[in-house]
Amino acid sequence: MKKLALLLLAPLAWAQSAEDAAITKLYETRDIATRIGARVSMPLLGVPKELREKSESRDHASVADSDVDAETKRQLEGGLQRLEELLRRHAGLNPETLGSPKRLRMTEAGTLVAATSAGEQDRLAGMIEHLRRFEGAYSIDAQLVDVPRDVARDLGVDASSVLRSDVDRAALLASLVSRGASVLVAPKLLVHPLQQANVIAAETLNYVGDWTVHTVEPGPVEVLDPVLMEVTLGSALDAFVVPLPDEKLELSLEVQHASVERPLRTQRVSLAGREVEVALPVITQQRAQLEFSLADGATAVLALPAEGERVLLQFVTVRSVPQPK
């Protein structure tokens, strides 16, 4: 009987080892990566225009000075990197595959080389095909809510969370507003999958930040010129949606908010024998980035880091919009 048992188990052991054996396959993904493109950073709110422009000019110098082919290459490289990252997260690959560049790597031409088991190949192929064939768009319904910190803590939303239904979202918003919260902005977006989209609700604050002394003729006489400063205040929302199987999605979210203390603080200074005034605005900047895995129609609640007695909560509801036939 022992020999018979060994004889029956041997084919099973052979079948299991064959299933786990690495198979190398190539997947052409350039078309998907081109749709994704490189990530574009949003303008920073609450930063004086002069400083912001210096930062943006450094970020985009290579683009401004290059030709169309170089920009196309940059977009492809960024898209390939982002595509590989999301496949690693959502294709159901085991830790050994994820930890070895030899088992999973993306070429510069957009070919994914995968040396994995047959089961992992099936999941990887299914995910790539799902991304390629997904049709439709996503609607994003957002509310930025200013909430007393103790109220957010009492209701358990002082940290990021997920609400499963519109009923849950409506109930929570109503409860927050009844206890002193206020909705600052409520933008809506229609976005295509795998493409970045953002919306900004902002205002410009202009103020005298300094004075310049000029010696002019006839005279000579000293003339004072104000140095005007400009800063953008308000809210910004950036979203990137990845369609997943089983009516799920991944939402990459970046939120910014910048506000100024009013009335503006000022200071009087003596310059060229005269007394002048400069503004010293106190600006509060809040920024947060997070990724959520959501069911279609669910709501992500993102708590922005803040000090003081109030906290900002960003509500974002995402639902698919079918492609018209």
Task: Give a summary of the structure in a few sentences.
The chain is α+β, with helices and mostly antiparallel strands. Helices cover 32% and strands 42% of the residues.
Mean of residue pLDDT values: 87
Number of strands: 15
Order of helices and strands: HEHHHHEEHEHEHEEEEEEEEEE
Low-confidence stretches: 1-19, 60-65
- Structural domain count: 2
Beta-strand residue percentage: 35-45%
Distance between the termini: 65 Å
The total of helices stands at: 8
Q: Assign a percent range to the helix content.
A: 25-40%
The secondary-structure class comes to alpha+beta
State Rg. 27 Å
Task: Based on Cα principal axes, name the global outline.
Answer: globular
Characterize the biggest β-sheet.
Answer: 6 strands, antiparallel
